[in-house]
Structures are given as C-alpha cells and as structure tokens.
Specification:
The protein has 252 residues and is of the alpha/beta class. It has ten helices and twelve strands. A hairpin with a 2-residue loop joins strand 9 (205-210) and strand 10. It is globular and about 50 Å long. Bound molecules: adenosine-5'-triphosphate.
C-alpha cells in the first residue's frame, strides 16, 4: 500500500506539492488528474523516489521509500516518466531487457528472457524487437517503454502520461494493458492522465489535484462530476451517463 504523509515539494520558495495525507488504494488503476502545473508529475516522482520531498514522506507497505536499497525498490516499484531520454541506438529488446536488470544484473536467465518475451507480446512489439528506438514511431517507442516497465514485473507500476503520442487505437490498447496489469497480474497501477474520458472509462479510482493539493480522491463515479471538474479545470464541461458509463463533454 502507498501512503503519503505531510508531503511537500518546494522549488525556489514556491511549494508545488502540499499533501497532508493520501492513501492510494491497493490494486486496480488509480488515475491522477488535474490541470497543468497541479503537481501530478511531482507527486508521482516523489512516490517513485525520483524526486526527494522537501518535507514529509512516502510509505510503501509502511516503509519510507527513501530507506529501500535501490535494487529492492526496483523489484517492487517501477516508474515511467514523461520524457524518456535514453540512447536512441538501443534496440527495443535491449530497452525491455533493462527492465529485468534488477533481477538479471546484466546476466539474463531463462526467466528473464520469458518476461521480456511476454512484455513484448503484451505491447505487440515482437516484430520490432531488433529495431533501434530511433527507427520507431512515437507511439511504438512509447509502447516499448511500457514493455520495459512491465518486464520489471513490480507490484507497483507508475506511469506519467503514458498516452502521449499514441493514436486513439493504441491509447485504448495501452489503457486496457494497464487494466490487465492491475486485474490479471495483480499490480497496483498509478497513472497521470489528462484525458478525462480515458480516466472515467479505465480507472477504478481518481485523485484530483489542483495547485499542489489533493482536491478530492475516490472511486470514479464520485470524482467525475460536473461541479468538481469545472472547478478543477476552470472551464465549462458536461458530464453525462449512458449505459452506466460516464462521459465528459469538454465542449459543453
Ligand atoms: N525542477 C523544477 N524546478 C522548478 N519548478 C518545477 C520543477 N519541476 C516542476 N516544477 C514546477 O512545479 C509545478 C508542478 O509541476 P508538475 O510537472 O508536477 O505539474 P503537472 O500537474 O504534472 O503538470 P502538467 O500537466 O503540465 O504535466 C509547476 O509549476 C512546475 O513549473
């Protein structure tokens, strides 16, 4: 279970995350939503120990993430950031094999090879496995990074805007994949999303952030509400329900 206690992050005197207490549900897909600059990525980075909090702490199953040994944390929690700057002259296979590093330490076993294969299957990139990353489209590259995270085979998987540069077909595919990772593989998936309809359709829980604070958090049906979303984004929109599903019309 991930818990956040008295967590703040301050850059040059400006506090961009300020959360008293937050508990992320175990299992399922939790989406973090909110306007640009709300602090979503900073929160995700602090959970994944890519950023150090200014005050407070993040607990993973009761233990401060900062106290884990690198290799131990890498077997429990994986993070996919927005801007993945890795050497372009790396093949898809090499990238996904990186995900196994906490286990293989560079000497892959049969199990590592099977996990790499399974991850490539899941994202549909088997045919591209020996392509270099700079020979892929943006969407294919994004899926290769997602395969790397899946190969890492962690209980917790965090994704920062994984739908960037994906067409609608692949965006739906990735969200289904994250749902599969949660429902079939038992992972706790946390994902920063901008598209409210993807959040409404594919997440189980939503954390709504604004100006560094958690405005509300709860099951999708409780958060995808007109009053809350209008306040959050300071824009007109409508929320409708059809066939027990909620839809957000951002032009309304
Ligand atoms: N390294 C940094 N130095 C200074 N300010 C930063 C740094 N990283 C983030 N910020 C600021 O912190 C605030 C929150 O940024 P963050 O990226 O967490 O927001 P976000 O909700 O993920 O935004 P977006 O939806 O635009 O990606 C922003 O005002 C940003 O400018």
């Amino acid at each position: 279970m991930i818990r956040v206690e008295s967590l703040t992050k301050t850059y040059a005197g400006s506090t961009v995350v300020d959360i008293d207490a937050l508990h992320l549900p175990q299992g399922g897909v939790t989406a973090i939503i909110g306007p640009n600059g709300a602090g979503k990525s900073t929160l995700l980075s602090m959970i994944g120990r890519l950023e150090i909090p200014s005050t407070g702490r993040v607990l993973l199953d009761g233990q401060d993430v900062r106290t884990f040994r690198n290799n131990t944390l890498a077997r429990r929690l994986a993070v996919l950031k927005q801007d993945n700057t890795l050497a372009a002259r790396l093949t898809v296979h090499d990238l996904v094999a990186f995900g196994r590093y906490p286990y293989s330490r560079g000497r892959p076993t049969q199990e590592d090879r099977e996990q790499i294969d399974a991850a490539l299957d899941l994202v549909g990139l088997q045919d591209f496995r020996y392509r270099f990353l700079d020979e892929l489209s943006g969407g294919q590259r994004q899926r290769a990074f997602i395969a790397m995270v899946l190969a890492q085979d962690t209980e917790y998987a965090l994704f920062d805007e994984p739908l960037n540069s994906l067409d609608i077909n692949h965006a739906v595919g990735v969200m289904r994949l994250l749902g599969h990772a949660a429902d079939e593989m038992g992972k706790t998936v946390v994902v920063v999303l901008h598209d409210l309809n993807f959040a409404a359709r594919h997440a189980d829980h939503i954390i709504a952030m604004q100006a560094g604070k958690v405005v509300e958090a709860g099951p999708v049906a409780r958060i995808i509400r007109e009053d809350l979303l209008r306040r959050l984004y300071d824009t007109g929109l409508t929320v409708t329900t059809r066939n027990n599903r909620v839809f957000v019309d951002v032009f309304g």
